[in-house]
Amino acid sequence: MTDGNQALKKAGLKITLPRVKILELMQGPENQHISAEDLYKKLLDLGEEIGLATVYRVLNQFDDAGIVSRHHFESGKAVFELSTQHHHDHLVCLSCGKVIEFSDEVIERRQDEIAMKHNIKLTNHSLYLYGTCTNDTCEHNDA
């Protein structure tokens, strides 16, 4: 049994072809922070006949089961990434939409200190930092 199948079983989800195919695609590093529409296009490119409504339904099931995390960056559309064991935050380019994951112990420690100062016990958090690329790799860079 593959890791994907085990993840589905552990989440209490039946192993179906659409779920397996979507999970396999999402395991590729280039498919993190991907929208349902982009995932659907990739499935079509691979010759998979899985409808857009099914992709949305599966992603919602995965989100409910904790297999993926849904993010709502400034673009207005939801993007998904596989849930990971390590916490990370995100830098988002407002021009090209590029998402960079990062971890910083100083930021994490400071957030905990601020929460304690205000008598809040953190259960989870997300940090999104928005800006624009300042290097030549941004396809929308005006520099």
Automatic annotation (TrEMBL):
Highest taxon above the source species: Bacteria
Assembly description: Homodimer.
Family per similarity comment: Belongs to the Fur family.
Amino-acid positions noted as binding Zn(2+) in the UniProt annotation, renumbered to this chain: 93, 96, 133, 138
Keyword field: Cytoplasm, DNA-binding, Iron, Metal-binding, Repressor, Transcription, Transcription regulation, Zinc
GO terms under biological process: negative regulation of DNA-templated transcription; negative regulation of siderophore biosynthetic process
Molecular function GO labels: DNA-binding transcription factor activity; transcription cis-regulatory region binding; zinc ion binding
Locations listed in the record: Cytoplasm
GO cellular component, one term: cytosol
Primary location recorded for the protein, binned into one broad class: cytoplasm
PANTHER family, A to Z: FERRIC UPTAKE REGULATION PROTEIN (PTHR33202:SF2), ZINC UPTAKE REGULATION PROTEIN (PTHR33202)
Details of cofactor binding: Binds 1 Mn(2+) or Fe(2+) ion per subunit.
Keyword Cytoplasm: yes
Protein name, per record: Ferric uptake regulation protein
Residue positions binding Fe cation: 87, 89, 108, 125
Cofactor(s) in the UniProt record: Mn(2+); Fe(2+); Zn(2+)
Annotated organism of origin: Shewanella septentrionalis
